[in-house]
Amino acid sequence: MTEDKTFTLAEAHKHFAIKTNGETWQLLEKKERTSIEDEILIHLAHASCYHWLQVGTGLHHQRAEWLLSHTYAEIGIADAALKHAKLCRDLTEEFKDLMQDFDIAYSHEAMARACACAGELSDALLHRQKAEAMGHAIADEKDRKIFMLDLNSGKWYGLN
Questions:
Q1: pTM score
Q2: Using CA atoms, how far apart are residues 51 and 32, in angstroms rounded to an integer?
Q3: Is 72 within 8 Å of 81 (Cβ atoms)?
């Protein structure tokens, strides 16, 4: 007979925040997705954000907004990508004492990708240049490599 494990509400929120974040990434990394999988992807990213809002800090919220912006940009929904990129940028500033160097670089990457998705290529280029400069300045080599791989992958909507 197995013993059922019980969780506090906070533990459950944290569990589902992490789980839905991971499932979002699994779908984002698929080479080709169906329209149903795109819908699921959006719901997963929002679910992760919701659960982090229940138990996380401003850092978790910033990262969740980045994931939402990235998700919408990858699917091609520019207005939502921009909305969440701006929230990510604002949270980066509001909680700057909680941010790692890569979080700041990712906030510029989010703005760049969302602007590119919206066809705002001059703003996209400006933010991409900032993201790249900040990416090269990331102190930890592993974090820097991950960021640069992310920056140089995915959809950029004609921004080269």
A1: 0.94
A2: 27
A3: yes
- pLDDT grade, residue 5 (50/70/90)? confident
User: What are φ and ψ of residue 17, in 5° steps?
Assistant: -60, -45
DSSP string, 57-93: -HHHHHHHHHHHHHHHHHHT-HHHHHHHHHHHHHHHH
| C-alpha–C-alpha distance, residues 158 and 100, integer Å | 29
Contact indicator for 110, 128 with CB cutoff of 8 Å: no
DSSP 96-159: GGG--HHHHHHHHHHHHHHHHHTT-HHHHHHHHHHHHHHHHT-SSHHHHHHHHHHHTSS--TT-
Residue 123: CB atoms within 10 Å: 16
User: ∠ CA(144), CA(150), CA(151), 5° rounding?
Assistant: 85
Q: Identify the residue whose tokens are 């993201």.
A: 131
Cα distances (Å, whole numbers) of residue 44 to 23, 48, 51? 7, 6, 11
Decide if 134 contacts 96 (C-beta within 8 A): no
pLDDT tens across 81-111, in order?
Answer: 999 999 999 999 999 999 999 999 999 999 9
* Number of neighbouring beta carbons within 10 Å of residue 143: 16
